[in-house]
Amino acid sequence: MFLWGTATASYQIEGAVSEDGRGVSIWDTFSHEPGKVRDGHTGDVACDHYHRWPEDVALMADAGLNAYRFSVAWPRIQPTGRGEVNQAGLDFYDRLVDGLCEKGITPALTLFHWDLPQALEDEGGWLNRDTSGYFADYAAIVAERLSDRVKMWITLNEPIVHMTFGYAMGVHAPGRTLLLDALPVAHHQLLGHGLATAALRANGAEQVLITNNCTPVWPASDDPADLAAAAAYDTMHNRLFNDPLFVGSYPDFSAFGVENLDFIHDGDLATIAQPLDGLGINYYNPTRISAPSTDLLPFDDAGITGYPTTAFGWPVVPDGLRELLVSLKERYGTALPPVYITENGCSYDGIEDQERIDYLDGHIKAIRRAQAEGVDVRGYFIWSLLDNFEWAEGYHQRFGLVHVDFETQKRTPKASYHWLRQLIAE
Predict the structure, then answer these.
(1) Average model confidence (pLDDT) across the chain
(2) Quick one: which of 262, 307, 261 has its CA closest to 287?
């Protein structure tokens, strides 16, 4: 069965940040620091999904969706990231999963979508190897409670983005600016994925995936310097988080001048490279790369022109998704498990959102072309069900199939929602 779904993330929609014993996350801290989020917006209330989830599940069912990808807030389960379990937090997700199952909607549960417990960040966050083990403990707790109904489990969401924006560049929580010194974050997230994979399976999980953000990399020209820069970017954005899973080793980091990899311990790569039941791919657009203009990184983002753009300014290149999927199949061959598009979507304003309809239509057709070229794609999750808290952009970017009035919390399905319902019905 092909999965037609939408995707959300806990901090972006739940609200209720101080209810039911939930602890503080790094996004609670970061969003309340002046200047970190546009116009001082926070996720304190967000879409109030914590209280309004039955309405949101009904919207999914009415659209004909047969799957829903959501994330669990780690601090709602373990307020300090380890130790005592908050049963009231588990109860919330138990109710949500029951509600989905009653509507015939397959739950696809993501364990980590960037809202690390602040107490763990105070001890180093993902720079601290111990966090990998705590993550596996948390995975076991959630799986023990929900694996009888949740069959699809995603360990991490976009570890490249969390490392780059959160630890290297500081534009997301926790706001560190370590540049290449953030590299241990990549390894500790992947190690956490591997340890959590074992813990999930030990507690009844049937399907275990990871979701990586991937992008086709286009060199700005045929100049050798641009080609080398594009290869370096591909290494950092795509291969850093896929090679250890499917090749069992890290790619060559020589272009980055990184020599000290002592954070990798014996046995780590075997833990990371356990077979997976699927790979989640989040795709938004290709990336065009040129030779570097500074010594900070071995590449520059050259930007893409000649394509329409979303309200976020991102280029709309549907065939880039086909290109990406085919390239992954060519790179990893039989090691590549079935693929699920776990995020794809666009920001546009308005209820009559023909641009979003055109965007989704183009990308669904790109998936079909990739399938015709031999890529085993088994699901498509649209980002997102609801307009929500869009990280550093606050409430200024609307990705939802359903419009949310953030003052009244009124939900209004957009034209794209009705279009999708018709498409699925056909």
Answers:
(1) 98
(2) 307
Rounded Cα distance, 197 and 132, in Å: 11
Cα–Cα distance, 243 to 332 (Å, whole number): 8
55 a catalytic residue: no
Which two three-digit tokens encode residue 46? 């967000």
Instruction: Provide, rounded to the nearest whole percent, the portion of the chain with pLDDT above 90.
Output: 99
User: Contact at 8 Å (CB) between 50 and 15?
Assistant: yes
Contact 292, 236 (CB under 8 A): no
Find the domain containing 99 and state its range: 3-425
Band (pLDDT 50/70/90 cuts) for residue 146 is very high
For position 299, what pLDDT does the model report?
Answer: 98
DSSP conformation class of 309: B
Extract the tokens encoding 274. Answer: 């356990």
Catalytic residue among 14, 158, 323, 390: 158
| Encoded tokens for 193 | 């994925």
- Yes or no: say if 400 and 49 are a contact pair by the CB < 8 Å rule: no
Q: Is 158 a catalytic residue?
A: yes
- ∠ CA 128-337-180, rounded to 5°: 30
Distance, CA of 282 to CA of 342 (rounded, Å): 6
pLDDT at 260 > cutoff 90: no
Question: What would the two tokens of residue 220 be?
Answer: 């700005």
> Could you give the maximum distance between any two Cα atoms of the chain, in Å?
58
Total domains present in the chain: 1
Rounded (5°) CA angle 277-368-347:
90
> What's the whole-number mean pLDDT along residues 107-112?
99
Which CATH number is 40's domain given?
3.20.20.80
**Tokens (6 digits) for 100:** 């989905």
DSSP string, 164-225: IIIIIS-SSTT----GGGGHHHHHHHHHHHHHHHHHHHHTT-SEEEEEEE---EEESSS-HH
How far is 209 from 110, CA to CA, in rounded Å? 9
Query: For 376, what's the count of Cα atoms within 13 Å in the CB-facing half-sphere?
Result: 11
> What is the band of 108 on the pLDDT scale with cuts at 50, 70, 90?
very high
Angle, alpha carbons 49-409-418 (nearest 5°) = 85
Which one from 14, 121, 323, 343 is the annotated catalytic residue? 343
